[in-house]
Amino acid sequence: MNFDRFLQYFVFLACVTLLVKPIGSYMAKVFRRETTFLDPLALPIERLTHKLCGIDPEQQMNWKEYAFAFVWITLWGTLLLYLVFSIQQFLPWFYPKYMSTPMTPDLALNTALSFVTTSTWQAYGGETTMSYTSQMLALVTGNFLGGAAGLAVGMCFIRGFANSRDERLGNFYVDFFRALYWLLLPISFLGSLALIAQGVPMNFNPYTTAIGLEGQPQIIAQGPVAVLEIIKNLGTNGGGFFNVNGAHPYANPTPLTNFIGMLAIAVLPAAFTYTFGSLTERKREGWTLYILMAILFSIGIFSCDWFESKGNPLLTEKIQLSEPANLEGKETRFGIAQSVLTAITTSNTSTGSYNSMHDSYTPLGGMVPLVDMLIGQFIFGGLGGGLYGIILWVLITMFVVGLMVGRTPEYLGEKIGPKEMKLIALYILVTPLTVLILAAIAVATKDGLAGLTTNIGPHGATSIVYAYASCNANNGQNFAGLSANSPFYNVTTAIAMLTGRFALSIPAIALAGRFSLQPTRNPTQGTMPSDTPTFAVVFIATVFVIGALSYFPILVLGPVVEHFLMYEGRLF
User: Fold this and answer.
1) Residue 41 sits in the same domain as residue 157
2) Residues 252 and 390 in one domain
3) What is the secondary structure of 483-549 as a DSSP string?
4) Distance between CA 173 and CA 279 in Å, rounded?
5) 572 — pLDDT class (breaks 50, 70, 90)
6) Which of the residue ranges 50-54, 89-93, 427-431, 517-521 would you say has the lowest mean pLDDT?
7) Which domain does 520 fall in, by range?
8) Same-domain status, 55 and 186
9) What span, in angstroms and rounded, lies between the C-alpha atoms of 343 and 300?
10) What's the number of domains the chain is made of?
11) CA–CA separation, 36 vs 193, rounded Å?
């Protein structure tokens, strides 16, 4: 790694670290319903919303009621988006001449579920399938709904640790609209203005036909790009206005817009650790969670940078390249540093917004974001999901340590008994069961293999696993060599998205409900501190050991085999 790339990674992580405390403290005030500088504008809107929707802000919910409200709003969001997609040809700003990919019912349902679950899995080309109205009305709305719902679930989980003998976990709808009015909408407004200033379009102009240097016509879509591009990152959604996402010069014209987008992805999930520490009155624990995230993030950055900087030995040796770095599929204006930074930031969150083609990464370079998605999206994770994801891994670590020393494990004064461990085990098993079973069905069936139009062998296997891992992680990025717009993949990826959204979040909500009923215990001499370097080492080892036990065979059959074949000069 050269100094320039190291400096870019360091500056990014330093900026995230500096923003953790002020933004985390602000979020704590918002969800405590304390006074903030946005109250004069947001409070009247909140009161009007409560009145129109019949919400009693003083009514508290237990975990079952909270989970039901979370599922309910997701259902209504899905129906809204599906309706818009179904009638988009009758709505304004629809240009049938350029809509080359038809919006079939299975694609419409897959896309609707994708955006309300923050997966934003795109089995279509944005500018060749979606009208300006669908992009702005449906996709932007889905991004806001999914992000706000995720923050609300994260707050519910925090209250489970903050409460003592109290089943009340807040009100989902109050948390939802607070996340919307105090966080996502105002930050998105300012962020979209910054993108417009950098050259991102925000208009409703018709598609433009230009003549290229070779004399061939080129169709250029414009539209309300800026409003979608900021919330796709801020809400950890990721679905872009254009088919090539952040690699498109209209979506991401400069290194500064790329940097802004990456900060928008990481800052809220990272700052949520400080919110957790503040609301539970354990700020040291909150900082410990953030440090663990930062360490694992750095490991991913340096690993991916190493593999991409080494490049493909076949090209380096046979073509005598002066620079061995793998630049295939990467924008020249971003290079290795900004491409790797984006790949790791998006794969460590449930965002999936990319500015380079991960399908063109070296085998082990592409394996790094795949592993990030498989181990559970907690570095920094999605809005809300990243926090409860890392805490559930902390609870597993505590359970392992408890087995070693023969004591009942506990965390922050909460006992981790058999019923709690069943919920935690369910959370850990969801991803491998979903991803591996669906991938096995895909590679064993004609319809699944039909999607491998450009890749076969180990790379094709990686493409299929990558798709289901991305959908289950509610991420949305993919290996472009897999043609996923078919009834088979539209149905199976939708199953993965629903599983990743509800089979992970509902056990977390249930666990919060169990912890909220427990009395808070004071630590004893036998309690393992969870804010020490020793615990950090045990935690990281636990993550890698359990991850290896779950996914090592499929990783060997995919990227690892491809890596050795590459060095033997026999690529599939």
Assistant:
1) yes
2) no
3) ---SHHHHHHHHHHHHHHHHHHHHHHHHHHHHHHHSPPPPP-TTSPPSSSHHHHHHHHHHHHHHHHH
4) 19
5) very low
6) 517-521
7) 382-568
8) yes
9) 10
10) 2
11) 23
